[in-house]
TrEMBL record:
The chain crosses the membrane at residues 6-23, 30-53, 65-90, 102-127, 164-184, 316-345, 351-372, 379-399, 405-426, 446-466, 472-492. One of its GO terms (biological process) is heme export. The keyword Transmembrane helix applies. Residues 232-258 are annotated as: Disordered. Its main location: membrane. This is Major facilitator superfamily (MFS) profile domain-containing protein. It comes from Calicophoron daubneyi (Rumen fluke). It is found in: Membrane. GO terms for molecular function: heme binding; heme transmembrane transporter activity.
């Protein structure tokens, strides 16, 4: 069964880059549709696997042998769907919400994911009863008798309950497809902020530039062919094809006149004469454009260029490691929670609700953290406080285990989940601030990949330590790596008050004629001298 949970962590890391590229190229709607369809498909595939499954006490058949591989395949499809959906909250928040709302919107998106995990903690045990313990640690394989008949009856009942759970899950996964297709738009009609408007303009301009370049290249190919037919008929080289000469060949073989003609064709593009872009960043600064506008209009290179800029950002890389350590510790703790608690509370049934409380308190922490960030805009201060408090409560949780008080464990779990889960959306927002104007989908995807990677490593190491040396060793290991992550976080440099507070309001419209950017709450005047 470990493979069914580990597949989520393993699938994320290699597929996050193509999933983020898809989000950047085709936008929120297409990415959300793909993720929703795959999520539903995985759910229904698991239903088919459940139908094929038969009791282990029965003779092995081809049908039964295919059940688990099909179940694993369906789980893998769901794991891949997760990759498309986990990066959505930060990207959706920046696309649809203004600056005073974006952190709260991100927090709500993250808490929705955590809410699903919390439901997964409490609903399945209610629907599906625990199977009876096998005799002598193995499955009974004797000839059909009263004991075997009882086991088969028990298996049939458990399978019936499991199928109810699988069908309900598949139906819940299918409903979002209908809602997304009918109600979800890729972006609002009017941008929610100036910065988002500038980003949309930059993307549109880049698209026009690519289309224009393609048209120019076609024109150059046609022009070069005509030039070759006119000037190159006497060429004695048999392999020189008139259909596809390179620009360098054309320039070298046809003399300066031809070079001048081709160059003129390349640089002339009346559609790209744009009031807001006219050369280098220095030239733009001389025209008194806002810094955000300069950044937006001079950064290019598509997804690959954006990815390289993010990776070369030292502050983001420090945050990437710190975020991965914190969230990876949270994943490891959630995975090993029952193993840890059973060493101290072997007879206490309520320990199953500790994980649920961890999730619910995290939802509260996410909302409050997002609201605080929206009000204060103190990104580094808020994230450091959240991380430090999570570290302290991890230490308190470790110490309270030896008090053998389930009440103290519930209290510690509440605050531990509050701060460690509340850290998640704040990390997304801080990453977006450090790398602005790069896409939030890219940065949040990389943060999630880091969390999954560290989660796998920490789960394996902490599991070995807990099994071989006890809970104290595993918990101390998690505390130690949290301290290392905190040191990395403190060294992150704040952005150059890139509080691009140009992002003042919602619904902006750019007016090149009178050099203003207007919105529902006012306007921002941009000084732009007339073209020479």
């Amino acid at each position: 069964m470990d493979s069914l949970s580990m597949v989520y962590l393993v699938a994320y890391v290699p597929l996050i880059v193509p999933a983020t590229w898809l989000l950047e190229k085709y936008g929120l709607r297409v990415t959300t549709i793909i993720g929703s369809v795959m999520n539903a498909a995985g759910g229904w595939i698991k239903c088919v696997a459940g139908i094929l499954a038969e009791s282990p006490a029965m003779a092995q058949t081809t049908r039964n042998a295919a059940a688990f591989p099909l179940l694993l395949f369906g789980q893998t499809i769901d794991a891949i769907a997760q990759i498309f959906l986990l990066g959505i909250p930060a990207h959706l928040a920046s696309t649809w919400f203004g600056t005073s709302e974006v952190s709260t919107a991100t927090a709500i998106g993250v808490l929705a994911n955590q809410l699903g995990v919390g439901i997964g903690f409490c609903i399945p045990p209610i629907i599906v009863p625990a199977p009876p313990a096998p005799e002598n640690g193995s499955v009974i394989t004797a000839n059909l008798n009263s004991t075997l008949a009882g086991e088969l009856q028990s298996y049939a009942f458990i399978k019936k309950c499991m199928m109810i759970l699988l069908y309900a899950g598949a139906a819940c996964n299918t409903l979002p497809i209908i809602l997304v297709l009918l109600l979800f738009r890729a972006q609002p009609i009017t941008a929610p902020s100036v910065a988002q408007h500038l980003r949309n303009e930059a993307k549109a301009r880049e698209k026009r530039s690519r289309e224009s370049l393609q048209d120019q290249e076609k024109f150059v190919d046609i022009l070069s062919r005509d030039i070759w037919l006119e000037h190159g008929q006497n060429s004695s080289e048999p392999d020189s094809s008139p259909s596809s000469p390179s620009r360098e060949q054309t320039e070298q073989n046809d003399g300066p006149d031809v070079q001048t003609t081709v160059t003129t064709a390349i640089i002339f593009d009346p559609n790209e004469v744009d009031w807001s872009v006219d050369g280098s960043a220095d030239h733009l600064r001389n025209r008194n454009l806002p810094e955000a506008a300069i950044t937006m209009h001079t950064r290019s290179g598509g997804f690959k260029g954006s990815l390289m800029r993010v990776i070369k950002n030292p502050s983001f890389m420090l945050l990437l490691c710190s975020y991965g350590i914190n969230t990876g510790t949270y994943y490891a703790l959630g995975t090993l929670l029952n193993l840890i608690l059973l060493q101290f509370f072997p007879a206490d049934a309520p320990i199953g609700w500790v994980g649920f409380l961890l999730i619910i308190s995290g939802i509260i922490g996410s909302i409050i953290g997002g609201i605080v960030l929206d009000k204060s805009k103190k990104y580094k201060l808020v994230i450091i406080v959240m991380y430090l408090m999570g570290l302290l409560w991890m230490g308190v949780f470790t110490g309270c285990l030896y008090r053998h008080s389930i009440v103290l464990i519930f209290v510690c779990s509440f605050f531990l989940g509050f701060f460690m889960t509340g850290f998640l959306p704040i990390g997304f927002e801080f990453a977006a601030e450090l790398t602005y104007p790069e896409s939030e989908g890219l940065t949040s995807g990389l943060l999630n990949a880091s969390a999954q990677t560290f989660g796998i490593i920490f789960t394996i190491l902490a599991s070995q330590l807990t099994t071989n040396h006890g809970s104290l060793a595993g918990n101390l290991f998690l505390c130690a790596v949290l301290i290392a992550g905190f040191v990395l976080l403190v060294t992150v440099q704040k952005p150059n008050e890139q509080d691009v507070n140009l992002e003042q309001t919602a619904a902006c419209t750019l007016h090149p004629d009178d050099h203003t950017i207007s919105s529902r709450e006012g306007s921002l005047t941009v000084s732009i001298p007339d073209r020479v």
